[in-house]
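dumping this here so i dont lose it
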């Protein structure tokens, strides 16, 4: 990465001045430009900043409108990447329609059935077959990525609309060793009239995805907030299907969760269903054999004590059979404070980070940050940090892509 910064500011003129100075400094240097922007003012200030960002690198840039990292502040993140190791792309691959709570749409299984339906005669030419299979799996890739050697791509980062399943699936199959980090862009129907707002060079888009593939090694990390606390003991998944957990330890998973909630003295249940407060969440975390900290954290969206099934907010699938899991609980959801971003900035290294933020409804009623000194501006050097209330898609090598919707989780490349 040539340069990155995240500006959290109350001053439109200060942000604009910083961007203009940066543009002058790097105008003659070859680069690929990433940006994300959120402003409390949705009219002239937003338009001026967008125009400045789009003009920064007209033929090699991508970006999105995001959610504010701190309520009431402009959030503007920019990164300049080495074009030799960062390949931009634009995707129009369709995702899946949103499913009803507790229902599963078998998006991934369609591809599996297509592979299973291939009839292989005894005199199969295996060399040609594997070549054809690889070609078929890469046909859905954005044009910019079809020429890349799968072995040389270490990670893929993208901004997407709210249906990223098609792109994430194709990337996983085409670059099986690559990590994947995607931000579901912030909803903008009342800001720009578009469901989401993406930017690719001089284009403004409202669907699909824009992204960058990296050839230099990068590690994908997930940081989980300290207020996400374990409930009960670890359990084994003994039956799962789609986004549903059918049994844990061969027992009714909803009843197990209810027992953990009652044992902890959490008053959110009735005899017939699990009911959640607006700012309270329960999760199912997937544990590694050597750590009690989950490396996946799935929001529990519904539970039926009689049938037992738990529904998870996952992008592709619930944890598989034999996965070690544990319930987690968060009593309330609060926005990340300025102090939290100071602490994040104090960590070493350069990072590209996506975070899930609380919904606008929760932010409106939040009191977090009261009593904190009001500052005009904070700059996170060597940090490209972008947030959205719609969540983040993650995939490390060997995993299926999954969606993290827990506010405060930060995923870093």
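and the seq i came up w/
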């Amino acid at each position: 990465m040539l340069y990155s910064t995240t500006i959290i500011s109350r001053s439109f003129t200060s942000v604009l001045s910083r961007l203009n100075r940066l543009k002058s400094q790097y105008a003659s240097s070859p680069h690929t430009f990433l940006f994300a922007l959120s402003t409390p003012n949705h009219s002239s200030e937003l338009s001026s900043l967008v125009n400045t960002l789009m003009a920064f690198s007209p033929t090699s840039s991508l970006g999105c409108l995001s959610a504010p990292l701190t309520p009431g502040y402009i959030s503007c993140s920019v990164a300049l990447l080495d074009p030799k190791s960062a390949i931009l792309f634009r995707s129009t691959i369709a995702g899946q329609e949103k499913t009803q709570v507790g229902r599963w749409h078998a998006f991934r299984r369609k591809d599996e059935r297509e592979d299973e339906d291939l009839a292989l005669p005894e005199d199969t030419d295996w060399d040609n077959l594997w070549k054809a299979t690889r070609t078929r799996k890469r046909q859905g890739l954005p044009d910019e990525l079809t020429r890349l050697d799968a072995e040389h791509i270490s990670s893929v980062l993208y901004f997407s609309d709210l249906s990223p399943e098609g792109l994430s699936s194709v990337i996983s199959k085409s670059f099986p060793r690559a990590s994947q980090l995607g931000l579901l862009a912030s909803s903008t129907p009342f800001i720009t009239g578009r469901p989401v707002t993406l930017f690719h060079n001089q284009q403004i888009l409202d669907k699909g995805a824009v992204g960058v593939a990296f050839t230099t090694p990068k590690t994908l990390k997930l940081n989980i907030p300290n207020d996400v606390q374990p409930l009960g003991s670890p359990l084994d998944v003994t039956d799962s299907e789609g986004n549903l957990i059918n049994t844990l330890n061969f027992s009714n998973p909803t009843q197990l969760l209810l027992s953990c909630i009652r044992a902890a003295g959490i008053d959110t249940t009735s005899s017939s269903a699990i009911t959640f407060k607006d700012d309270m969440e329960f999760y199912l975390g997937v544990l590694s054999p050597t750590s009690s900290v989950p490396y996946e954290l799935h929001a529990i969206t519904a539970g039926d004590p009689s049938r037992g099934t738990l529904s998870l907010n996952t992008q592709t699938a619930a944890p598989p059979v034999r996965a070690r899991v544990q319930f987690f609980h968060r009593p309330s959801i609060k926005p990340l404070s300025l102090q939290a971003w100071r602490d994040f900035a104090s960590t070493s290294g350069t990072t590209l980070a996506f975070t899930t933020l609380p919904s606008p409804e929760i932010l409106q009623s939040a009191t977090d940050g009261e009593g904190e000194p009001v500052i005009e501006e904070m700059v996170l050097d060597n940090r490209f940090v972008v947030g959205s209330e719609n969540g983040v898609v993650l995939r490390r090598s060997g995993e299926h892509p999954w969606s993290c919707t827990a506010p405060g989780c930060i995923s870093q490349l």
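The two ends are 11 Å apart (CA to CA).
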